[in-house]
Amino acid sequence: MQMAAKDFQDPANQSLVLDMYITDSKGEPLQAALSAQELVNSSQVKAIVGPCSWEETSLVAQIATKNQIPLLSFADSTPRWARERWPFLIQASSSKSAQMKAIAAIIQSWNWHQVSVITEDVESSTKAVLQLSTALRQVNVQLVDVITLPPSSNPSLLSHQLESLKVRPCRVFVVHLSSSTALAEQLFRTAMDMKMLERDYVWITTHAFTSLLHTFHPSTISAMQGVIGVKGHFRETKPRYQSFSKRFRRRFSSAHPDESNHEPSIFAVEAYDAVWALALSLLRPSNVTGGQEDLLNKLLLCNFNGLVGNVQFTVQKAGSLNTFEVINVIGKSYNGLGLWTDGHGFSENTVGEEETATYFSSMRDIMGHVIWPGRPRYSPKGWTPSPISEPIIIGIPTESIFKQFVDIELDPVQNTISAKGYAIDLFEKAVEQLPFYLPYEFRAFNGTYNALVQQIYLKNFDAAVGDIAIVTNRLPYADFTHPYTESELVMIVPLQSKKVNRAWLFTKPFTGSLWLLIFILNIYNGFVVWMIERDHCLKLRGSIGNQVGVMLSLSFTTLFTFQGLKLHSNLSRMALVVWLFMALAITQTYTANLSSILTVPKLEPAIDNVESIQMRRANIGYLKVTYVAKYLEEVLHFSPKKVKEYTSPEDSMRDLHEGVIAAVFMERPWAKILLARYCTGFTIAKQSFKVGGFGFAFAKGSPWLPYVTEALVKVTESGQLRDLEIDMIASQKCVGNDELLGDSSSEAGYGSSNPSLGADSFWMLFVFTAGTSTLALLMFMYWSEDELYDSSSSVVK
């Protein structure tokens, strides 16, 4: 501030003399107010510059407004209501609120999902924590703890507060302290003594703290190894700043020779620009009225290029700082890792124009190797297991119809429960995929599924796990994960013998294409034999009609008998031998397949769709699930008199077999279990209906829900979900219908869906037969031409 006043009073500004009265409030708000009142009364100052905290500013602003004296404050942020209450208050420092987005971007880059905040118990910190919470929420990061420290904390209180963080699983700490270096130094020394600056810990400091890092004692810097910091960034390459920095270092080192770092911080640069703005306003011509209000108006019209960039007080405050430097404390100082710019992302440290920089969304993409506390060779995962962490309470149903999903065993002596089953195993697999430690405790609930979900709304449970259907009437009470099962309502129906057309049963062993291929190949083979043998056999001669009839007869009778025709050529014999081999293979296969069709029963569903049930006016059943009954009556329009409720799957299958009901409706996962047990005589009809499926329920707005949903997706993609389902189905012993119905009348097996054989079953044999016949024909034609040529030569001679 003294340098700004001196620089302004150059030969061109001899008419303006700035008298500066400097007092030190030592960070005490009451002392700042008393000093301000003293300056107004005794020194009759024209303006007040310098309160650095909001607590000081709020008291001094009252005095400044009462005396109509402009107050240029260096507090980080000023509430909107304050500008209305104290119109002479101007925020001279740029807003650093965007730093919270930078911190959230850093946390997101390393896939940390939980954060604890350490801050001062002062009014200004509340707004900063709210800003950080908003920024974290936008990147799906949960703020789990906020520890507030009194400005003058003693070591025992600090130890107690840090111990409360140490025993919890979260290991990512954001430190937001004011410019009070004493509390910051004490905090990190205590944390080092408590071994909280070792492996697996992450510490991130905000601008107000990081920008004063160079003023800390070397012992504090030594305790902060691996800490990540964010501080305001401005271009330091301008000639004007270079000149200021050089003179500042010379003057500061002369006044404080014991200090090792003489670089000006952003606080010094903003103070320089604030005094320069005040001097420019005092030089500006006054209007007719004059007075202090005139000075305030001239300050608000101020617009010039300062050391930090353009200086302009819009709505009584300076502009926002949008670029921050990310640093890493190493050795006796720190290394710059890169820059973060609001609206763009991370970039490398640049000495030129930021407009030419390349930006990335993740800190990992551009920044070099980060030294973490304890110097591990890996990146911290942000959490560690904590045995004393309070677990979330998860309700599980005791009335599950299928124990394969949820099976609970109660221990009355120990007053504990043990749970197992498909849903329980899946939840445990999902928890293993979470990027943080999540302690949980299962508690049995003896009631309906609707009541179980309502217990979450009543805050008796944090979540519910089991075969819980996602239906509309449960959504007001809880939020659900994505369904982890197939979302279909199906109907199990009996199998019956498939009806076939007996008149054309003889054609079923082969497909139509195979019949056509046999016909063509027989005609071709008959033609080849006829062509070769016609010169040697009188029966193969005569009129065209006679020869065609003989050739066709030869094509098919050869398949069954070869009596009455004596072959004279080895070529025709060669073709016929292969032809007869093919005929033998085809006839034997035909006989075997036809026998199979006649003796093995072919089964099909007795019911194809709900329309056929309704046309027959048949009864249907469903397992005791409220929403299924509602769906059957309101959506599928079944009469309530035709719908029967079952509490036992065995009872429903018995009635289905005996014809009491035509179909049983249930969710597809349940149907798979039933069909794995009663594996003969029943099947799932092709028609199905979309429903919500099964999911896990969480309290509305629960921070765990998006993470568990994401974990379920990972379990699915890794194949673990499929393995769990296969194990569940395989654990069911196929007992057929004998055990269920007490008889042996059930039909076994499902038969082949298509018993007809196609051309692909004989294609190699057909190629061999056709190839042999073709080869014989070609050799015959070649020798016939040679004989014709020899006969012609004899005639010439």
UniProtKB/TrEMBL annotation:
UniProt xrefs under SMART domains: PBPe (SM00079)
Q: Output the superkingdom of the source species.
A: Eukaryota
**Compartments it resides in:** Membrane
Q: Which GO terms describe its cellular component?
A: membrane
Provide the disulphide bond pattern. 679-734
| Domain Ionotropic glutamate receptor C-terminal, first and last residues per copy | 393-728
UniProt keyword Disulfide bond present: yes
Keyword Glycoprotein set for record:
yes
Main subcellular localization, coarse class?
membrane
Enumerate the transmembrane spans. 514-532, 544-562, 574-592, 762-783
Keywords on record = Disulfide bond, Glycoprotein, Ion channel, Ion transport, Ligand-gated ion channel, Membrane, Receptor, Signal, Transmembrane, Transmembrane helix, Transport
Matches recorded under Pfam families? ANF_receptor, Lig_chan
Which residues lie in coiled coils?
none
Membrane topology classification: Multi-pass membrane protein
Question: A single GO molecular function, which one?
Answer: ligand-gated monoatomic ion channel activity
Described by its record, this protein's role is as follows: Glutamate-gated receptor that probably acts as non-selective cation channel.
UniProt lists the family membership as follows: Belongs to the glutamate-gated ion channel (TC 1.A.10.1) family.
Q: What is this protein called?
A: Glutamate receptor
In which organism is this protein found? Answer: Linum tenue
